[in-house]
Design brief:
This protein is of the alpha+beta class. The protein has a single domain, classed as Gcn5-related N-acetyltransferase (GNAT) (Aminopeptidase). The protein has four helices and seven strands; from the N terminus they run βααβββαβαββ. A seven-stranded mixed β-sheet has the order 1-2-3-4-5-7-6, with helices on both faces. The radius of gyration is 15 Å and the shape is globular. The model has no long low-confidence stretch (mean pLDDT 94).
């Protein structure tokens, strides 16, 4: 599994990725995510397609140390999507591990994310990975933190 830049050659295949029907309330589509990234350059969006071999299987997007806003200077996992055909295979966990390694290599001591509570919410996935609630709520979403051990 690896992360790959989204280019004109793979954009449509990545945009075609879909989550399960009961997950749509928790994660925006790739198309919506790319539009949101374009509309909010101040969030310093960083995104990649998740590939297994030569097949796009997911999408990840971060606010990479935005210069302003509530997450100023911090890394925030904005989107993580694994296509419904490839879920339950460890791809999300592996993509998140790669993201955590990249963020840690950038000097971060933590990675933040958030989720909307509800039936089928992603909290169990994030909890298993080591995220903990910060106690903050952002636009109705529960903010989580993954703390990196000191090196």
């Amino acid at each position: 599994m690896h992360l790959r830049e989204i280019t004109d050659d793979n954009r449509e295949a990545v945009r075609a990725l879909r989550v399960r029907r009961n997950q749509k309330q928790f994660v925006a589509s790739v198309s919506k995510s790319l539009k949101e990234a374009a509309k909010t350059p101040e969030a310093n969006p960083w995104y990649r397609a998740v590939y297994r071999d030569e097949d796009p299987v997911g999408f990840v997007m971060l606010a990479w140390k935005p210069p302003t806003g509530p997450y100023q200077g911090r890394h925030f996992l904005w989107r993580l999507l694994v296509d419904k055909r490839y879920q339950k295979r460890g791809i999300g966990r592996e993509a998140l591990a790669q993201i955590a390694d990249l963020v840690r290599a950038d000097g971060a001591t933590e990675l933040l994310t958030s989720y909307e509570p509800g039936e089928g919410e992603p909290w169990p996935f994030y909890r298993k990975f080591g995220f903990e609630p910060t106690g903050e709520i952002d636009d109705g979403e529960i903010v989580l933190r993954l703390v990196f051990p000191a090196r």
